[in-house]
Amino acid sequence: MHQYLRATFWILVYMALVLAPLFALLLGPVPAGGGFWVDLSLALGFAGTAMMAIMFLLTARFQRATAPFGIDLIYYFHRLASIGAFAFILAHPLILVARDPALFGAMHPAVMPWHLWAGFISFGALAALMITSLWRKQLRIHYDEWRRAHVLLAVLALVPGVAHIAGVAHYSATPWKTWLWLLIMLSCLATVGYVRLLKPMQMLRRPWRVVEVIEERGSSWTLVVRPERHAGFRFLPGQFAWLTLWSSPFAMKEHPFSISSSAEAVREVRFTIKELGDFTRRIGQVKPGTPVWLDGPYGTFSIDISRAPGYVFVAGGVGIAPVMSMLRTLADRGDQRPLLLFYAYHTWERLTFREELEQLKEQLNLEIVYVLSEPPSDWQGETGYLSEEIFARHLPADKAARECFICGPTPMIAVAERGLARQGMPPTQIHSELFDLV
User: Fold this and answer.
1) Which residues form the FAD-binding FR-type domain (predicted)?
2) Which of 209, 235, 266, 392 is deepest in the core (most CB within 10 A)?
């Protein structure tokens, strides 16, 4: 209940931040009405700009605000809300031009006033931001390059956007209303400064170092890191952290990885990373002694938050990493609650943590259902891909009382969520870890 109250509080804060500028503009003297469509166009422009400003706060990783939701859901909401803000801002000029086509004449570059130029620059930057984010992979934009461009485009969209509002001076002609928008803009720029300057400075004072690199099955590697000259941090089993490797914390090259070690481990954090992309394919080349910086922990994907008399885990590929953190923690605690793990992979030989999982079956009240898409000839277990039929064959009778954690490729998550719900697991007890958002 405490978690739901905190979530409700932050949702109300978000709504207040988005709507406050809109309602504040109605205070004091207001211009003569231009009619319903003009007012609607202006309201959409104001709301879209306010939503765009709040995006800076959503991605600042303020732990207190993100804790009730999980930062993966915050980023997912950021994506959807950005689409909504773009739609509002796009509708703003379209409505005005549809109402009065003569406005096209004022948009000629030779006669266009500066505040319209500001509006065009803002909209162009926002459009570029949306295109490069929604179709980054199709455009083959490197993740690190995209992140730097994303910040620059966001600032280039917001600052001219606020200048456009101040220049038009419709509903914002009084000084305090102009200063309200300037304060919103300065708050966003201050947030960028905090994330890109202050936080990296704090991380520099809390370095970590790689002490061991362990090769795992399935082209995966486990980095064992320990804090230097500080106590590190405590985390919940299943959480993740942003890791900066081979670069300064100022370089904007941090990457999120799930922690795979037990939460009961003292002064040690493990990350199990699969060779998949430009950054991760070099993980095996990391040498002991390499300095790293961590920003975390984050996430609500944890048995310590969603408590239950038993658990169901669904993992695909390297999605086993946060599940291993939870299983290792339960083993260290001597916990004997019933556990069921569905683990989907291609081949038996490349199954990450295969040997340790069999050992954990002896320490825990754990049942494992392996699902192989390329099984060996003598395989007696489940084959193909995870499906509702596989869940139906193995889910326990008390499934409605258990909490379920799913981590893996996005298509697998969708299949698992749908199949588990159809088999009687309450949707509110199904938790998924989402990272493939950009």
Assistant:
1) 203-304
2) 235
Tokens of 420: 């588990």
Whole-Å CA distances, 316 to 126, 347, 396, 433: 36, 12, 20, 12
Residues near 66 by Cβ (< 8 Å), separated by ≥ 6?
A: 74, 298
The reply to whether 221 and 317 lie within a common domain is: no
User: What is the Cα–Cα distance from 277 to 61, expressed in whole angstroms?
Assistant: 24
Supply the pLDDT for residue 2: 66
Q: What was the pLDDT predicted at 300? A: 87
Quick one: 221 and 343 in the same domain? no
Which of 203, 233, 261 lies at the terminal end of a domain, its last residue?
203
- Dihedrals phi, psi of 369, to nearest 5 degrees: -110, 105
CATH of the domain at 54: 1.20.120
Q: What is the CATH number of the domain that holds 369?
A: 3.40.50.80
* CA 356, chain centre distance (Å): 30
The pLDDT value given to residue 358: 94
Do 106 and 32 belong to one domain? yes
Residue at a domain's end among 298, 320, 350:
298
Please answer whether residues 36 and 73 qualify as being in contact, where contact means their C-beta atoms are separated by less than 8 angstroms.
no
Q: Cα-flanking dihedrals φ and ψ of residue 251, to 5°?
A: -80, -5
Q: For 348-362, how does the pLDDT look when each residue is reduced to its tens digit (9 = 90+)?
A: 999 999 999 999 999
What tens digit of pLDDT does each residue of 152-177 get?
Answer: 999 999 999 999 988 887 777 778 88
Torsions phi, psi for 206 (to 5 deg): -130, 70
Q: How many domains does the chain have?
A: 3
Burial pattern 153-169, b for ≥16 Cβ within 10 A else e, equals: bbbbbbbbbbbbbbbbe
pLDDT-derived band at 366, boundaries 50, 70, 90: very high
234 with 179, same domain? Answer: no
Per the listing, tokens 């400064």 go with 193
Residue with tokens 């008390």: 398
Higher pLDDT, 1 or 20: 20
142-to-139, 165, 397 alpha-carbon distances in Å: 9, 34, 47
Contact between residue 132 and residue 146 where contact means Cβ atoms under 8 Å apart: yes
